[in-house]
Write a structure and sequence with these properties.
Oligomer: single chain
Strand order of the largest sheet: 2-1-3
Helix content: 40-55%
Structural class: mainly alpha
Shape: globular
Distance between the termini: 42 Å
């Protein structure tokens, strides 16, 4: 069975995913850092795909060039808004014995929205650098990060 690795450079789904046992080429997340052997890695990767799908659906609103210039406090408020939406979706199914697919999708999508805004905050502070991104984190409120 081949292991799935996430390449450490930008792209989406098929362009990000690769199956490789090679040690040459771009650094693979999971090749030497133990992530590929982690029992949780497949779940993290599946959720990252959901996050990217949500970003792709909203790409018309802007992309990284937009969120990287946002005020992190404004993004934190958006996290709270999305968290409220997630909690509402959870409330709608709490009393039911059988969660139907649309309700399940709503919960998963709201969780991805929360995660995306959290990722944007992390990116502003340098937590999401890719191999192709040599830029340092930007200054926030005139303070170097």
């Amino acid at each position: 069975m081949k292991k799935t690795y996430l390449y450490h450079f930008g792209g989406t789904d098929d362009s990000v995913m690769g199956r490789s046992n090679k040690s040459d080429g771009p650094k693979l997340i999971g090749s030497s850092d133990g992530l590929a052997e982690s029992q949780t890695w497949p779940y993290v990767l599946a959720f990252a795909r959901r996050m990217e799908a949500k970003l792709a659906k909203n790409r018309h609103k802007g992309d990284r060039d937009g969120w990287i210039t946002c005020n992190p406090d404004d993004l934190a408020f958006r996290i709270q808004d999305e968290l409220n939406e997630l909690q509402e979706a959870l409330r709608r199914v709490r009393s039911k014995n059988n969660v139907v697919a649309p309700e399940r999708e709503a919960i998963i999508n709201e969780a991805a929205d929360v995660a995306n805004f959290a990722m944007m905050v992390a990116d502003i502070y340098g937590g999401c650098k890719s191999a192709n991104d040599g830029a340092m984190p930007r200054a926030v409120n005139n303070q170097k990060i």
